[in-house]
Write a structure and sequence with these properties.
The complex is a heterodimer of chains A (345) and B (86). Chain A is of the alpha/beta class and 345 residues long. In chain A, 33% of the residues lie in helices and 23% in strands. Classes of the chains: A alpha/beta (345), B mainly alpha (86).
Chain lengths: 345, 86
Protein backbone atom coordinates (compact mmCIF):
# COMPACT_ATOMS: atom_id res chain seq x y z
CA UNK A 1 0.00 0.00 0.00
CA UNK A 2 1.41 3.37 -1.03
CA UNK A 3 0.85 6.79 0.54
CA UNK A 4 0.26 9.41 -2.17
CA UNK A 5 -0.66 12.44 -0.10
CA UNK A 6 -1.12 13.42 3.52
CA UNK A 7 -2.34 16.16 5.80
CA UNK A 8 -2.05 16.66 9.55
CA UNK A 9 -3.62 19.06 12.03
CA UNK A 10 -1.74 18.99 15.32
CA UNK A 11 -0.41 21.38 17.95
CA UNK A 12 2.50 21.99 15.55
CA UNK A 13 2.32 23.89 12.27
CA UNK A 14 1.81 20.67 10.33
CA UNK A 15 -1.19 21.74 8.27
CA UNK A 16 0.85 23.91 5.94
CA UNK A 17 4.42 23.41 4.78
CA UNK A 18 6.00 25.61 7.47
CA UNK A 19 6.62 22.81 10.01
CA UNK A 20 10.07 21.91 8.69
CA UNK A 21 11.12 25.53 8.25
CA UNK A 22 10.13 26.91 11.65
CA UNK A 23 10.92 26.18 15.30
CA UNK A 24 8.76 23.56 16.96
CA UNK A 25 6.04 24.83 19.25
CA UNK A 26 6.75 24.03 22.88
CA UNK A 27 4.38 24.10 25.84
CA UNK A 28 4.60 23.67 29.58
CA UNK A 29 1.29 22.02 30.24
CA UNK A 30 -0.77 18.96 31.06
CA UNK A 31 -2.32 18.99 27.59
CA UNK A 32 -1.66 20.73 24.28
CA UNK A 33 -4.35 21.92 21.87
CA UNK A 34 -4.17 21.68 18.11
CA UNK A 35 -3.41 24.73 15.97
CA UNK A 36 -6.53 24.76 13.85
CA UNK A 37 -6.38 26.25 10.36
CA UNK A 38 -9.02 28.45 8.73
CA UNK A 39 -11.57 25.83 7.70
CA UNK A 40 -13.70 28.03 5.48
CA UNK A 41 -12.02 26.91 2.22
CA UNK A 42 -12.91 23.31 3.12
CA UNK A 43 -16.13 23.36 5.15
CA UNK A 44 -19.27 25.45 4.45
CA UNK A 45 -20.05 27.78 7.37
CA UNK A 46 -23.52 26.28 7.71
CA UNK A 47 -21.90 22.91 8.55
CA UNK A 48 -18.90 24.29 10.42
CA UNK A 49 -21.03 25.97 13.07
CA UNK A 50 -22.32 22.60 14.27
CA UNK A 51 -19.00 20.80 14.45
CA UNK A 52 -17.03 20.06 17.59
CA UNK A 53 -13.24 20.33 17.52
CA UNK A 54 -12.44 16.69 16.70
CA UNK A 55 -15.02 16.61 13.93
CA UNK A 56 -13.75 19.94 12.55
CA UNK A 57 -10.14 18.76 12.52
CA UNK A 58 -11.06 15.44 10.89
CA UNK A 59 -13.23 16.99 8.21
CA UNK A 60 -10.87 19.93 7.61
CA UNK A 61 -7.85 17.67 7.06
CA UNK A 62 -9.92 15.14 5.10
CA UNK A 63 -11.47 17.74 2.78
CA UNK A 64 -8.03 19.28 2.21
CA UNK A 65 -7.10 15.97 0.52
CA UNK A 66 -10.47 15.11 -1.01
CA UNK A 67 -10.48 18.43 -2.86
CA UNK A 68 -7.29 17.28 -4.61
CA UNK A 69 -8.03 13.55 -4.98
CA UNK A 70 -11.33 12.68 -6.57
CA UNK A 71 -10.86 8.99 -7.36
CA UNK A 72 -11.69 7.88 -3.81
CA UNK A 73 -13.04 4.34 -3.35
CA UNK A 74 -13.27 4.30 0.42
CA UNK A 75 -13.09 6.44 3.55
CA UNK A 76 -11.68 4.59 6.57
CA UNK A 77 -10.96 6.35 9.84
CA UNK A 78 -9.80 5.45 13.33
CA UNK A 79 -10.66 7.28 16.54
CA UNK A 80 -10.68 6.16 20.14
CA UNK A 81 -13.07 8.80 21.40
CA UNK A 82 -14.62 10.61 18.41
CA UNK A 83 -16.42 13.86 19.24
CA UNK A 84 -16.11 13.37 22.97
CA UNK A 85 -16.99 16.94 23.96
CA UNK A 86 -20.34 16.75 22.14
CA UNK A 87 -20.91 13.33 23.66
CA UNK A 88 -20.42 14.69 27.19
CA UNK A 89 -22.63 17.71 26.42
CA UNK A 90 -25.36 15.38 25.20
CA UNK A 91 -25.09 13.11 28.25
CA UNK A 92 -25.12 16.11 30.62
CA UNK A 93 -28.25 17.43 28.92
CA UNK A 94 -30.04 14.15 29.62
CA UNK A 95 -29.46 14.82 33.33
CA UNK A 96 -29.90 18.62 33.27
CA UNK A 97 -33.20 18.48 31.41
CA UNK A 98 -34.53 15.42 33.19
CA UNK A 99 -34.56 13.23 30.07
CA UNK A 100 -36.74 15.80 28.28
CA UNK A 101 -36.33 17.15 24.74
CA UNK A 102 -32.67 17.15 23.73
CA UNK A 103 -30.89 19.12 21.03
CA UNK A 104 -30.04 16.90 18.06
CA UNK A 105 -26.75 18.54 17.11
CA UNK A 106 -24.61 17.29 19.99
CA UNK A 107 -25.87 13.75 19.48
CA UNK A 108 -25.33 13.78 15.71
CA UNK A 109 -21.81 15.19 16.02
CA UNK A 110 -20.74 12.98 18.92
CA UNK A 111 -20.90 9.63 17.15
CA UNK A 112 -17.38 8.45 16.18
CA UNK A 113 -18.42 7.83 12.57
CA UNK A 114 -19.67 11.43 12.15
CA UNK A 115 -16.42 12.45 10.42
CA UNK A 116 -16.25 9.66 7.84
CA UNK A 117 -19.98 10.07 7.19
CA UNK A 118 -19.72 13.85 6.77
CA UNK A 119 -16.76 13.46 4.40
CA UNK A 120 -18.81 11.04 2.31
CA UNK A 121 -21.83 13.35 2.28
CA UNK A 122 -19.78 16.42 1.42
CA UNK A 123 -18.15 14.67 -1.55
CA UNK A 124 -21.16 12.54 -2.58
CA UNK A 125 -19.02 9.46 -2.03
CA UNK A 126 -21.06 6.26 -1.76
CA UNK A 127 -18.11 3.88 -1.49
CA UNK A 128 -16.96 1.83 1.50
CA UNK A 129 -17.12 3.92 4.68
CA UNK A 130 -15.94 2.65 8.04
CA UNK A 131 -14.69 3.96 11.37
CA UNK A 132 -12.60 1.88 13.77
CA UNK A 133 -12.89 2.74 17.45
CA UNK A 134 -10.69 0.20 19.22
CA UNK A 135 -8.83 2.68 21.38
CA UNK A 136 -5.03 2.69 20.96
CA UNK A 137 -5.20 0.47 17.87
CA UNK A 138 -7.99 2.34 16.07
CA UNK A 139 -5.70 3.95 13.46
CA UNK A 140 -3.72 0.75 12.88
CA UNK A 141 -7.03 -1.09 12.33
CA UNK A 142 -8.05 1.57 9.81
CA UNK A 143 -4.73 1.05 7.98
CA UNK A 144 -5.19 -2.74 7.91
CA UNK A 145 -8.76 -2.23 6.67
CA UNK A 146 -7.44 0.05 3.92
CA UNK A 147 -4.81 -2.53 2.91
CA UNK A 148 -7.51 -5.20 2.62
CA UNK A 149 -9.99 -2.93 0.87
CA UNK A 150 -7.43 -1.93 -1.75
CA UNK A 151 -7.42 -5.59 -2.83
CA UNK A 152 -11.05 -5.26 -3.78
CA UNK A 153 -11.48 -1.78 -5.24
CA UNK A 154 -10.07 0.40 -7.96
CA UNK A 155 -8.90 3.87 -7.00
CA UNK A 156 -7.56 5.45 -3.84
CA UNK A 157 -8.66 5.32 -0.23
CA UNK A 158 -8.71 8.08 2.36
CA UNK A 159 -7.48 6.67 5.65
CA UNK A 160 -6.97 8.71 8.79
CA UNK A 161 -7.45 9.38 12.45
CA UNK A 162 -8.77 12.08 14.74
CA UNK A 163 -8.73 12.73 18.45
CA UNK A 164 -9.68 15.75 20.54
CA UNK A 165 -8.63 16.76 24.04
CA UNK A 166 -11.50 17.40 26.41
CA UNK A 167 -11.68 17.91 30.15
CA UNK A 168 -13.59 14.62 30.26
CA UNK A 169 -10.81 12.45 28.88
CA UNK A 170 -8.19 14.35 30.87
CA UNK A 171 -10.15 13.60 34.07
CA UNK A 172 -10.69 9.94 33.19
CA UNK A 173 -7.14 9.33 31.97
CA UNK A 174 -5.77 11.11 35.04
CA UNK A 175 -7.60 8.69 37.30
CA UNK A 176 -6.06 5.84 35.31
CA UNK A 177 -2.57 7.34 35.73
CA UNK A 178 -2.04 8.23 32.05
CA UNK A 179 -1.82 12.04 32.52
CA UNK A 180 1.05 13.90 34.19
CA UNK A 181 0.26 15.45 37.58
CA UNK A 182 2.16 18.66 36.93
CA UNK A 183 2.87 20.83 33.93
CA UNK A 184 5.48 19.25 31.70
CA UNK A 185 7.56 20.55 28.79
CA UNK A 186 6.30 19.09 25.52
CA UNK A 187 9.60 19.12 23.64
CA UNK A 188 11.36 17.42 26.58
CA UNK A 189 8.65 14.80 26.97
CA UNK A 190 10.65 11.77 25.85
CA UNK A 191 13.43 12.43 28.33
CA UNK A 192 11.06 12.33 31.28
CA UNK A 193 10.26 9.47 33.59
CA UNK A 194 6.98 10.75 34.96
CA UNK A 195 3.78 9.09 36.03
CA UNK A 196 1.59 9.69 33.00
CA UNK A 197 2.20 11.79 29.92
CA UNK A 198 1.27 15.12 28.32
CA UNK A 199 -1.98 14.78 26.40
CA UNK A 200 -2.32 16.00 22.81
CA UNK A 201 -4.82 15.93 20.00
CA UNK A 202 -4.84 15.91 16.24
CA UNK A 203 -6.23 14.62 12.97
CA UNK A 204 -4.15 12.98 10.27
CA UNK A 205 -5.32 11.96 6.82
CA UNK A 206 -3.57 9.93 4.14
CA UNK A 207 -4.51 9.11 0.57
CA UNK A 208 -3.40 5.51 -0.03
CA UNK A 209 -3.30 3.51 -3.21
CA UNK A 210 -2.08 0.29 -4.84
CA UNK A 211 -0.46 2.44 -7.48
CA UNK A 212 3.11 3.47 -6.78
CA UNK A 213 3.04 6.27 -9.35
CA UNK A 214 3.49 9.57 -7.47
CA UNK A 215 3.71 7.64 -4.20
CA UNK A 216 5.66 9.14 -1.30
CA UNK A 217 6.29 5.93 0.67
CA UNK A 218 5.13 2.34 0.87
CA UNK A 219 3.42 0.97 3.99
CA UNK A 220 4.64 -2.60 3.87
CA UNK A 221 3.26 -4.30 6.97
CA UNK A 222 1.34 -3.70 10.18
CA UNK A 223 1.26 -6.01 13.19
CA UNK A 224 -0.82 -5.31 16.29
CA UNK A 225 -1.29 -7.11 19.59
CA UNK A 226 -3.30 -6.45 22.74
CA UNK A 227 -1.66 -7.96 25.80
CA UNK A 228 0.01 -6.95 29.03
CA UNK A 229 2.57 -9.73 28.66
CA UNK A 230 5.57 -8.01 27.10
CA UNK A 231 7.17 -11.31 26.04
CA UNK A 232 4.13 -11.95 23.86
CA UNK A 233 4.66 -8.52 22.31
CA UNK A 234 8.27 -9.37 21.44
CA UNK A 235 7.11 -12.64 19.86
CA UNK A 236 4.78 -10.63 17.63
CA UNK A 237 7.69 -8.35 16.72
CA UNK A 238 9.91 -11.34 15.87
CA UNK A 239 7.17 -12.66 13.61
CA UNK A 240 6.88 -9.16 12.06
CA UNK A 241 10.65 -9.27 11.35
CA UNK A 242 10.38 -12.75 9.81
CA UNK A 243 7.55 -11.59 7.52
CA UNK A 244 9.59 -8.76 6.09
CA UNK A 245 13.00 -8.17 4.60
CA UNK A 246 14.64 -5.68 6.92
CA UNK A 247 17.89 -4.08 5.78
CA UNK A 248 19.59 -3.46 9.14
CA UNK A 249 22.00 -0.83 7.88
CA UNK A 250 19.19 1.21 6.31
CA UNK A 251 16.43 0.88 8.88
CA UNK A 252 15.60 3.62 11.38
CA UNK A 253 13.12 3.42 14.21
CA UNK A 254 10.34 5.73 15.28
CA UNK A 255 9.27 5.04 18.85
CA UNK A 256 6.15 6.24 20.61
CA UNK A 257 8.10 7.27 23.72
CA UNK A 258 5.93 9.55 25.84
CA UNK A 259 8.00 9.97 29.02
CA UNK A 260 5.62 7.85 31.10
CA UNK A 261 7.65 5.62 33.40
CA UNK A 262 5.23 2.74 32.77
CA UNK A 263 5.86 2.94 29.02
CA UNK A 264 9.58 3.70 29.31
CA UNK A 265 10.18 0.19 30.65
CA UNK A 266 8.91 -1.37 27.41
CA UNK A 267 10.62 1.11 25.08
CA UNK A 268 13.93 0.63 26.93
CA UNK A 269 13.57 -3.14 26.65
CA UNK A 270 12.70 -2.87 22.95
CA UNK A 271 15.77 -0.74 22.28
CA UNK A 272 18.08 -3.09 24.19
CA UNK A 273 16.77 -6.19 22.46
CA UNK A 274 16.13 -5.03 18.92
CA UNK A 275 17.84 -1.75 18.06
CA UNK A 276 21.47 -2.30 17.10
CA UNK A 277 23.09 1.06 16.44
CA UNK A 278 20.29 2.46 14.30
CA UNK A 279 18.84 5.96 14.35
CA UNK A 280 15.83 6.46 16.58
CA UNK A 281 13.22 9.18 16.23
CA UNK A 282 10.30 10.14 18.45
CA UNK A 283 7.11 12.08 17.81
CA UNK A 284 5.07 12.42 20.99
CA UNK A 285 7.38 15.24 22.09
CA UNK A 286 5.89 17.10 19.10
CA UNK A 287 2.22 16.11 19.18
CA UNK A 288 1.56 14.88 22.72
CA UNK A 289 0.07 11.53 23.70
CA UNK A 290 -3.33 10.40 22.43
CA UNK A 291 -4.69 6.99 21.39
CA UNK A 292 -4.31 7.52 17.64
CA UNK A 293 -1.08 9.51 17.80
CA UNK A 294 0.76 6.80 15.83
CA UNK A 295 -0.72 8.52 12.77
CA UNK A 296 1.64 11.40 13.58
CA UNK A 297 4.49 8.87 13.67
CA UNK A 298 3.44 7.67 10.22
CA UNK A 299 3.20 11.29 9.00
CA UNK A 300 6.73 11.89 10.32
CA UNK A 301 8.04 8.70 8.67
CA UNK A 302 6.79 9.86 5.26
CA UNK A 303 8.80 13.08 5.67
CA UNK A 304 11.86 11.29 7.05
CA UNK A 305 11.96 8.95 4.06
CA UNK A 306 11.71 12.02 1.85
CA UNK A 307 14.70 13.59 3.62
CA UNK A 308 12.82 16.08 5.77
CA UNK A 309 14.08 15.89 9.33
CA UNK A 310 12.84 17.80 12.35
CA UNK A 311 15.66 18.12 14.85
CA UNK A 312 13.37 17.74 17.88
CA UNK A 313 12.34 14.30 16.61
CA UNK A 314 15.90 12.96 16.74
CA UNK A 315 16.38 10.68 19.75
CA UNK A 316 19.51 8.81 18.66
CA UNK A 317 21.27 10.03 15.58
CA UNK A 318 23.42 7.63 13.58
CA UNK A 319 24.79 8.58 10.22
CA UNK A 320 22.89 6.31 7.87
CA UNK A 321 20.92 6.29 4.65
CA UNK A 322 17.36 5.67 5.79
CA UNK A 323 15.40 3.49 3.41
CA UNK A 324 13.08 1.73 5.82
CA UNK A 325 11.43 2.81 9.07
CA UNK A 326 9.95 0.62 11.77
CA UNK A 327 7.42 2.40 13.96
CA UNK A 328 6.74 0.88 17.37
CA UNK A 329 3.97 2.36 19.48
CA UNK A 330 2.12 1.30 22.57
CA UNK A 331 -0.95 2.74 24.22
CA UNK A 332 -2.16 2.14 27.78
CA UNK A 333 0.63 -0.43 28.22
CA UNK A 334 -1.43 -3.13 26.53
CA UNK A 335 -1.99 -2.14 22.90
CA UNK A 336 1.16 -2.49 20.83
CA UNK A 337 1.74 -2.04 17.12
CA UNK A 338 4.58 -2.32 14.61
CA UNK A 339 4.55 -0.63 11.21
CA UNK A 340 7.08 -1.04 8.43
CA UNK A 341 7.31 1.90 6.04
CA UNK A 342 9.84 2.11 3.23
CA UNK A 343 10.92 4.37 0.43
CA UNK A 344 9.39 3.87 -2.98
CA UNK A 345 11.74 2.04 -5.32
CA UNK B 1 -42.16 41.31 28.96
CA UNK B 2 -42.35 43.91 26.22
CA UNK B 3 -42.39 42.59 22.66
CA UNK B 4 -39.29 44.52 21.61
CA UNK B 5 -37.28 43.30 24.63
CA UNK B 6 -38.36 39.76 23.88
CA UNK B 7 -37.26 40.05 20.25
CA UNK B 8 -33.81 41.27 21.29
CA UNK B 9 -33.44 38.43 23.77
CA UNK B 10 -34.72 35.92 21.25
CA UNK B 11 -32.12 36.97 18.69
CA UNK B 12 -29.35 36.32 21.21
CA UNK B 13 -30.82 32.93 22.06
CA UNK B 14 -31.20 31.94 18.40
CA UNK B 15 -27.54 32.82 17.79
CA UNK B 16 -26.46 30.83 20.86
CA UNK B 17 -28.62 27.74 20.25
CA UNK B 18 -27.80 27.54 16.54
CA UNK B 19 -24.16 28.61 17.02
CA UNK B 20 -24.48 31.10 14.16
CA UNK B 21 -20.89 32.02 13.42
CA UNK B 22 -20.16 35.68 12.61
CA UNK B 23 -23.80 36.77 13.06
CA UNK B 24 -24.71 39.51 15.54
CA UNK B 25 -28.23 40.23 16.87
CA UNK B 26 -28.41 43.42 14.81
CA UNK B 27 -27.77 41.34 11.65
CA UNK B 28 -31.09 39.52 12.13
CA UNK B 29 -34.07 41.59 11.01
CA UNK B 30 -37.36 40.94 12.78
CA UNK B 31 -38.93 39.74 9.54
CA UNK B 32 -35.86 37.90 8.20
CA UNK B 33 -37.11 34.42 7.21
CA UNK B 34 -35.45 31.61 9.19
CA UNK B 35 -35.65 29.26 6.22
CA UNK B 36 -34.85 30.14 2.64
CA UNK B 37 -33.44 33.58 3.52
CA UNK B 38 -29.94 34.79 4.27
CA UNK B 39 -29.87 32.88 7.59
CA UNK B 40 -30.28 29.68 5.57
CA UNK B 41 -31.36 27.46 8.46
CA UNK B 42 -32.23 23.80 7.92
CA UNK B 43 -34.35 21.06 9.46
CA UNK B 44 -31.90 20.38 12.30
CA UNK B 45 -32.08 24.08 13.20
CA UNK B 46 -35.88 23.84 13.38
CA UNK B 47 -35.47 21.10 16.00
CA UNK B 48 -33.00 23.31 17.89
CA UNK B 49 -35.62 26.12 17.85
CA UNK B 50 -38.23 23.72 19.28
CA UNK B 51 -35.80 22.90 22.11
CA UNK B 52 -35.13 26.63 22.64
CA UNK B 53 -38.85 27.36 23.10
CA UNK B 54 -39.23 24.51 25.57
CA UNK B 55 -36.14 25.25 27.66
CA UNK B 56 -36.28 29.03 27.72
CA UNK B 57 -40.04 29.66 27.72
CA UNK B 58 -41.63 26.39 28.82
CA UNK B 59 -43.50 26.09 25.53
CA UNK B 60 -43.82 22.63 23.99
CA UNK B 61 -44.60 22.37 20.30
CA UNK B 62 -45.95 18.91 19.71
CA UNK B 63 -47.90 19.52 16.53
CA UNK B 64 -45.62 20.01 13.48
CA UNK B 65 -48.33 22.10 11.75
CA UNK B 66 -48.25 24.53 14.67
CA UNK B 67 -44.45 24.63 14.46
CA UNK B 68 -44.59 25.73 10.83
CA UNK B 69 -46.69 28.77 11.79
CA UNK B 70 -44.24 29.77 14.53
CA UNK B 71 -40.79 29.12 13.05
CA UNK B 72 -41.11 31.77 10.36
CA UNK B 73 -39.13 34.71 11.72
CA UNK B 74 -38.39 36.56 14.94
CA UNK B 75 -41.72 38.44 14.77
CA UNK B 76 -43.82 35.27 14.61
CA UNK B 77 -41.79 33.50 17.24
CA UNK B 78 -41.92 36.41 19.71
CA UNK B 79 -45.68 36.86 19.30
CA UNK B 80 -46.21 33.14 19.83
CA UNK B 81 -44.11 33.23 23.00
CA UNK B 82 -46.06 36.16 24.44
CA UNK B 83 -49.33 34.38 23.74
CA UNK B 84 -48.26 31.00 25.12
CA UNK B 85 -45.54 31.60 27.73
CA UNK B 86 -46.14 29.67 30.96
Amino acid sequence: MYIKDLCYISCQTTFDSSFFETDSIDANAIFVSAKEPDYTPYIPKSLLRRMGKGVRMGIGSGMHLLNKHTNISGIILGTANGGLEDCIKFLNQIVDYNEGTLTPTNFVQSTPNAVAANLALMTSNTCYNNTHVNSGLAFESALIDAMLTLNEVEGDILVGSLEEVTQANINIDKLKGWVVDTETRLLHLVNGNTSGSLIGEGAGMFVVSHDKQQALVEVVDIHTVTTEDINSVWKVYESFLKNNTIEEKNVAFILGRNGDEKHNINYNAFEQQFVKGNSIYTYKNLCGEFPTSISFGLWLSVHLLNKKIKKESIYKDVSMDIKQIIIYNQTYNNQHSFLLVKEVL
Amino acid sequence: MELEDLKSRLKLQVIEYLNLIDIKPEDIKDDEPFFGGSLDLDSIDSLELVVLLEREYGIKIENPQEGRKVMIDINHMAEYILANKK
